């Protein structure tokens, strides 16, 4: 743990000599979050396999962080910056990721069961094989995302955008596809829809 003087010195370094706080004091972080943010500020990026269950990191800047195989179940990552982060195989079940920026992040094989991802930015994000059962992705941006083999059964996708997203082999049975933007999203013979659903009618593109 950095002491008060080390924090002040580090704050000056990373903020170009301006006396800005290292950690935003108007946000309450849970136990362990302060240490993680301080280590991140010193340049540490590898927090793989860390136990971060129920951690509160609202609005935190965690761009490029490595959280591979980490346990973030029930974590609060509201409006967090996770651009290009590695969250592959991480547990994010029941986590709050509302309005989080996950652009170009790697969530391959991650568990996001019942996560709150409303209005999340997932442009170009890798979600291959991810467990997205009963996730709330309403109003989320999934343009160009790769969801090959992902499970989205029971997901709320209201007004979500899947423009040019790869849904090959994805399981969408039981997902709420009402008013979902699926134009030019890709599907294949292994993509699973509810009986009677017509992807061509919604201008989806068959691949393979």
UniProtKB/TrEMBL annotation:
InterPro entries referenced in this protein's UniProt entry, alphabetically: 5peptide_repeat
Stored SUPFAM superfamilies: Pentapeptide repeat-like
Keyword Repeat annotated: yes
Gene3D superfamilies: E3 ubiquitin-protein ligase SopA (2.160.20.80)
Any Pfam family matching the protein: Pentapeptide
Domain of life: Bacteria
Alphabetically ordered keywords of this record: Repeat
Protein name as annotated: Pentapeptide repeat-containing protein
């Amino acid at each position: 743990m950095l002491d008060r003087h080390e924090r002040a010195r580090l704050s000056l370094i990373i903020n170009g000599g301006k006396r800005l706080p290292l950690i935003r004091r108007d946000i309450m972080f849970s136990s362990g979050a302060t240490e993680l943010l301080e280590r991140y500020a010193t340049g540490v990026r590898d927090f793989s396999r860390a136990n971060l269950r129920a951690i509160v990191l609202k609005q935190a800047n965690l761009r490029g962080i490595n959280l591979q195989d980490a346990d973030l179940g029930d974590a609060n990552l509201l409006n967090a910056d996770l651009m290009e982060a590695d969250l592959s195989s991480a547990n994010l079940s029941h986590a709050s990721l509302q309005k989080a920026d996950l652009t170009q992040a790697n969530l391959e094989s991650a568990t996001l069961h019942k996560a709150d991802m409303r209005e999340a930015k997932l442009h170009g994000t890798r979600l291959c094989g991810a467990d997205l059962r009963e996730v709330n992705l309403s109003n989320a941006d999934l343009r160009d995302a790769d969801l090959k083999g992902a499970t989205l059964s029971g997901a709320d996708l209201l007004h979500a955008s899947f423009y040019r997203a790869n849904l090959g082999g994805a399981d969408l049975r039981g997902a709420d596809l009402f008013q979902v933007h699926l134009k030019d999203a890709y599907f294949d013979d292994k993509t699973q829809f509810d009986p009677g659903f017509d992807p061509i009618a919604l201008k989806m593109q068959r691949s393979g």
